[in-house]
Protein 1
Amino acid sequence: MAKGDQIKITNKKIKSNSSKKWLRRQLADPFVEKAKMAGFRSRAIFKLEDMQEKFKLIGKNSSVLDLGCAP
C-alpha cells in the first residue's frame, strides 16, 4: 500500500476513532500480511528473529518463559 492511501473502515461495530486508527495501521502494515501468510498469529516473530540474530539471546538448550504475551 502506497503512503497516503486511505483505508475506509465501514464496520458499524467499531465506534471509537482510536480503534479505527489501529485497524487502518494493521491493514496497511506489510509485516501483518507477511505473518498471516506464514501462519503466525502475530508480527512479533519478525522482531524476535531480528533480536536473536543481533544479540544471540536464546541458546541451544535455553528455556523461554513468555510473560505478558497479550496486549
Protein 2
Amino acid sequence: MRKKNPHLSILISVGGGSDGSSKYSEMARDPAKRRTFIHSVVDFLSSHSLNGMDLDWEFPTMAGNDAGDRHEGRLEDKHDYVTLLKELKEAFHPHNYILSAALTSGKWSIDRAYDIAGVSRYLDYILLMTYDYKGPWSHKTGHNAPLYPNPADSLEDRQSTTQFTIEYFIKGGADPKKIILGVPLYGYGWTVASGDTRIGAPAVKGIELGTYGEICQMVKKPGYQVHWDDHAQVPYAIHGNTFITYDNLRSVQKKLDFVLNHHLGGAMVWEVNGDDFHNHCGDGKFPNMKLMMKVLNHVAVHD
C-alpha cells in the first residue's frame, strides 16, 4: 500500500468491542503495567515500521471480559485513562508516532468515562463512534446513526444523535480539528407489530442486518419502501413488518457536509469492507469511500 501512497499512515488498533474492559482497567491503574504496555507498543511500532496506535478501550469505567459481559466498573478509570494517554503521548513524541482513540457516543457513557479536555490534550485524533444509537437491543425502532434530532423526540433520543455527540465533545473542551466523525457502513432491523412501521414503534425482535453493500441490494428488491427522515437526515426502509435503519450515499454526504461546516478533523468508517466493493448497486466500487475522499480530500478515485 505504501508503494502506491508513500504518505500513507498505518496504525495498529488495540482493543475493540469484543475485547472487554477489565484488563485495560487493571493495566491503566498500575504504573509498572502501564510502562510494560507502552514499551511493548513502541517496540512493536518500531519493529514493523508503523506510524502509531489507535486505543480502542471499550470503555473506561466499565468492566467485563467481552462485549456480552459489560457492566459498571471502576470510576477511577476516568483519571487513569488520561494518565495512560499522557504517558503514551510522551513515549510516542520522539518517534513522531500518531496516537488516536475510539470513543463512545452516548452521553451517559461520555460523562462517566471521559475527561474530555484531558483526552483531547493528549490525542492526535478523537475517533467518535457516532453510531449504534439504536440497534437490535433497543425496545423501539429508530436510527442507527441519526445526524440531527427530531424536536418532538424525548430528551434521551435528542441526545442520541451525531450532532449532539460532536457538539458535546466540543463544549467539553475537545479540539474540533482532532474530532473524527464515525460513519457506519452497516445497518440494523426490527420486526414490528403488524402495520406499525413508524419511527419509534415498539420492536418485537431485533435483527443484525448486514453491511451497506448487502443492504443497498436488499432495498432495491420488490416490496421494499425506502424513506428519508427530514429531521435525522438519514434513510430507513420498510418491508412488511420489518423496519430497517442504515446509511446511504445521501446521508453520508450530509455527514461530510457537517464535518466541513464544523471544521472537524475528518471522518472514518466502520468498516471498509462494509462498502459495496463489487458495485452490485450501480454506484461504482467502494462508493462511500470514494465520496469521502472526494469531499474531504478533493481526490477523485477511479475503479
Protein 3
Amino acid sequence: MSYKLGILDQSPIFPGASAFDALQQTINLARHAEEWGYTRFWVSEHHHAEQLAGSSPEVLISYLLAQTKSIRVGSGGVMLQHYSPYKVAENFHVLSNLSPGRVDLGIGKAPGGLPLSTKALQFGTVNDGKDFEERLSFLQEIIENSVNETHPLAGIQATPLPSEKPKMFLLGASADSARLAADLGIAYVFARFINSNETVLEDAARIYQSIYPTGSFKVSVSVIAAPSQQEAEQLTGDQKIVKVHLKSGRSVTVQTLAQAELFGKQSGEPYEIEEQDSNIIAGTPSYVKEVLANLHEKYGVDEFILHSPILKEAERLRSFRLLSPLQLALSEVKHVTSQN
C-alpha cells in the first residue's frame, strides 16, 4: 500500500456493558492493532459522555504504552482549550520518556463535551477557550524547546526533556484548521467522520499542501468492513452526523439528536440542528481498500486513521482485522499468486 493505516478508538460503552468493559476492549484492540500491523493507535477525549469511557487520553495512553511494544500510541486528541499548554507538554514529555519514539500528541479544538462539562473543566480559571491558536503555538514552542526569547516565559522548559519528542498533530474538520496546521508546520488530520463535506476536505487538502508541501496530510474516516457488502451495509444502520450551529457562529458535532438539543439549551444562545449523512465507508475489505486508494490519489493522503461506528464489539474487532495492513498485504499476495 502507498499509505499507512492507524486506528482511533473512542472506548464505546456498548449496551449492557460497563466503562470497565469498554476500557478492557480498548486495551485488547490496541494489542491486536500492533499485531495486525497498524502504524498508530489513538484514543479520544470526551466529557460527561455516558456512552464513551475515554475522558482522559493521557492516563489511558500511559497504560496502553505499557501493554504494547512497538505501535505508536497517542491522543486523538487533547482538547487544548481546556488546559495549560505547559502542563500538556509535561504530560507528553513524561510519556515520551517512558516510551521513546512511540508517543503522538494529537490536539483538538473542539470542547469534547456539552457546555456544562466545558464550564466544569474551566471552572475557577480565567480561561474562556478563545485563545486556541496562541495556546497551540506556545505548546509547539515548548515541545520544540524553543520558546521565543521575547516571550514572557522565555527560558521555560517542560521537564523531563525526552530523547525523542512526541510527534504533534492538529485534528480538525475545516480548511481553517488545515491552514493553521500548515502555518505552524505540523501534521494535520482531517476528521472526515465528523465533516463528510467533500468540498471542505478538498479545500483543506489544497490549502495545507500548498502552504506546507512537505507536511503530513492524514484523514480520519468511518469504516465498516465485513465478509459481504450486504452485512457491512446492515451494520451501518441509519447513522447520521449531527451538528449544532450556534448563533455566535460556532458549530459542534455531537452523537445524537438528543445531545444536540441538550447542547443547544446549555449554550444559552439560539441554535439550529443539522443532520448530515455519516458517509461511512462500508463494504468488503477490497471495496473499502478501493475507496481509500481513491481518496489517497485524489487528496494526497499519506495515512488514514480508521474509526469504527459499529455498535457490536465482535463485529468491530473483525472489521479492524479485515482492514489491517497485514490482512490487506496477504490479500494482495494471494491476488498476484492467483494471476500467475
Protein 4
Amino acid sequence: WINRPESMLTQFVKSAVFVMPGLSDISKTFADIEKFNPDVLFFFTHINWPLQYLFQAISELRKKIPDLVLSAAADSVAKISLEDAKQYGIDFVFRGDIELNFEEMLRGMISEGLRSHSEPQFLCDWGTLQTLDEIPSPILAGNIDLSSAEKMQIDFGRGCPNSCAYCPIGEIKPRYFSVQRVKSEICYVLNHAPHIRKIQLQASDIFSDETYLILSEIRRMPLSRKIKFESYTHSGFRHSDEKIRLADSDIFSIRIGVQSFNPKSLQAVNRRNDANESKNNILRLRRLAPHADISVELIMGLPYETEETWFDVLEWVFEENLKLFVNHLFVPPESILANSSEGRKYEIFKDVPYFAVKTDVLSAAELTALSAKTRKIVFVMNVIHASKALEKAFYNFAAGFSCKFPYLTLAEKIAETLLSDKSTRKWAKEGMTRMSQHTFSAGYPVCFSRENILGAAHVFKKVFAEAAGSWSQ
C-alpha cells in the first residue's frame, strides 16, 4: 500500500516491518526486527502471543530503538487499550480496515525522518471499504516470496454474517473481493510457487452468492500438479444443489462448521441450533460432492457441553466416517460470551491466551480429562485411516458392538492398549505428544511406518478379542 508510485510516503520512510506472529517466539521475532532498525513497526496481535509477553518485548524494543514508530492491529481476540499503548510505548492502535488509516498514521508520525512523541492514538475504521478490490494485492504486486511456499492463504472477504458469541470476525459486516481478483491471485500463485500443494480460500462460506463461482473457475484451470483448495461452509445453511456440485472434485477440501449438536450450547453462543437440519445438510453435501474431502469442525468447551453431549457429537462423526477438526474454545475478553452469565463462570489459560481451562459445567479436572480422551480417540482414528485394512476392520467391528458409544469406546480402548503394549507404546506415545493440545484433526493421511501399522494390527486383534468376550455382555 505505501509503495504505490503515487505515494508520498516513499520519500521519507526508510523501511517498514510488518509482523504476523503466528507461532513464532516473541523474543526471537523482536530481536530479528532490531537488526533491521526500521522506521516503522506494524504488528498483528495474535492468540499465540500472550499480551504480557508481547508488552514486555515491545518495551524492550522501544528502549533499543527510541524513534521507532510502533503500531498494532488490535483485533477482538487481543484487545489493546489506549492505557496499554501509553504504558508500553505503542503509538497507534488500529481496528477495522487498516489500509484506510495506515498512510494517515505515517503522515502524522513521520516528517523528514523526525518522530513525533505525541499521545497514543486509536484509529478505528469499520467497513468504509465497500469494494475490497480497492486494496492493492500483495500477491499480484510480487511482494510475497513464493519460491519455497507449500501452503498459501488467499482472502476472499472480510467479516462474517454469523456473529458467533466467541468469534471476533463477526463484528465486521461481510464484504468480498471479486471472483476475478481471487482468480488472478490463484493463477499468480500457481505460476510463481513451484512447490505449492495447498491453497486456503479464506471466506466465511464458499457457497455464498459472492464466492461460489470461484469453484467453477478453479475446475477450469489446467493444474499441472496435485493441489488442494481448502474452504469453509456452515452446517446451518442449506445451499442449492447446483452450488454444492461445483465442489465435487478431489481438488477441493470443504470444512463444515458444526461446533456442536447440543441445542443449549449452540444457543448460548448464538449459533443455529437445529441438530437434525445440520446433520442432514452435512450428509447432503457429502452426497452431492462425493469426490471432495468433507470434514466437520467442532469446538470443545462450549457452554452447557458435558462429556455425554460431547461424545454424542463425536460418535455421530465417526459413525458417519467423516473427517474431523477439533478446536478448543477460546474466550476473547469483552466478547459476547465472556460477558454472558455462562462465560463469567469460565477460567482462562494464562500461557495460551483465552483458552478455556474450566467451563460453566466442567471443572478444570473434568475438561482436562475430556480433552485427553478426545486426543486419544483422534489419534486412533488417524491410525485407522492410515490403513484400508485397519479402517475396514474397525468399522465392521464397531457397527455390531453393543454399548452406548461403540465407536468412541472401541477407539479409546485401542488407544490405551497402543500406549501400554510393548510393541507400540513408544511410537504411540510420541505420536500423541506431537498432537497439539488445543487443535487437532482426524481422518487425514498421517505417515505411519509399515512396522507401526503391523503393531497396530496386533493391538486391534487383541482389543477385538477382549471386546467380543466381555464388553458386549
